[in-house]
Amino acid sequence: MKIAVIGSGYVGLVSGACFSEFGFKVTCIDKDETKIAALNDGIIPIYEPGLDDLVARNTASGRLSFDTDLGTAVAEADAVFIAVGTPARRGDGHADLSYVYAAAEEIAGHLSGFTVIVTKSTVPVGTGREVERVVRKANPSADMAVASNPEFLREGSAIADFMRPDRVVVGAECERARAVMSQLYRPLFLLETPILFTSLETSELIKYAANAFLAVKISYINQMADLCEAVGADVHHVAKGMGLDKRIGPKFLHPGPGYGGSCFPKDTLALVKTAEDAGSPVSLVAEVVRYNQERKESMADRIIAAAGGSVEGMTIAILGLAFKPETDDMRDSPSLDVIPRLLAAGARIRAYDPAAMEQARPLLPASVDYCSGAMDCITGADITAVITEWNEFRALTPKAIHDSMAGNVLVDLRNIYEPANSVAAGLSYSNIGRPVPDSD
Predict the structure, then answer these.
(1) 228 is catalytic
(2) Digit-coded pLDDT (tens) for 156-191
(3) Whole-prediction pTM value?
(4) Would residue 407 be called left, alpha or beta, if left means φ above 0 and alpha means ψ between -120 and 50 degrees?
(5) Would strands 428-430 and 25-29 be described as parallel, antiparallel, or unpaired?
(6) Is domain 290-430 classified as CATH 3.40.50.720?
(7) Which CATH entry fits the domain spanning 2-198: 3.40.50.720, 3.40.50.300, 3.40.140.10, 2.40.290.10?
């Protein structure tokens, strides 16, 4: 079987590379000539552990190729995956589906033989029906079916998530489409991976419902962390006690500065807008959207409070810029809210991230000083603030941090250091939701 993937961004590139690893012939297509040229030269445009080796291996085997022209690849394909971006639309928060529909119209002109057109992009309920309408209008004689196959890839572990997923969801309503999708995922079926076939609408909603639930879980533990601070409890123990309940589970119960990234912010907002349009509002998710933005903005206030109420003229070392470790993704990262607010308060900012500094430069004020490493960033700083929990930062000892700084304030927004050890090292330590012992 042959596959064409329209869009060679995060989802399209990872999916295409993984399908080629399954043994299928895959062509990844993108209109960005620079990106395609780089991929053909073996240069991966995103940071994702293991992706460079996967792409190199399957390109060398002839199973994976890259092109700017979709014509031949679509004409030969048994399945065409639409994996273009669906960003939040400016002004109203709805998902911008213009790239999806443009891709569908272009695909329509090159179909040959029975083809399954699969929406891999995260799209609101009803998009699959509209994709079918667009294709039928452009090519009334097309022998095709539309399917929905949402991705559940976590940045930083996307290859493992594709190769060993919790489940595969497929919205397909004709037997021929189900047969093609079953064949594509046969390697996972042999591993007894649950494969759930549903209607188009159900498949589309599963993706949004899952992401929104995880966003709610993150916001819930963040509010519990604030309550722990108010009453003297330890949020880590609260989270562990909750997570041991099998009905709840331990994942996504890690307090921090709020969620970001390519999925949760836009997907929660799109679900809220879809629900409002359907006359069935999801008020719980709407409150999470509001609360999460407020939380990210409040993190600068925490840092200022830890410094005694003012950071005027102080140098602050920011460890971590990406929204999470093992990615260079800056979309809706808490650092984008924290750093400008600290600069506005009169601070000087030094910053370091193992992967995201080039992506951060055009998004942050020009006055930010980017450093070559964690210790370089910390050296001479009055305050150190941890925003992203890279393992590289976990390896730093509180004593090494203290001895390198000019000041002694450590604001740990990811709770990667032990309070007692930090205080014992001479640091004025603050975190999210855990008691800190007195320095004496």
Answers:
(1) no
(2) 999 999 999 999 999 999 999 999 999 999 999 888
(3) 0.92
(4) beta
(5) unpaired
(6) yes
(7) 3.40.50.720
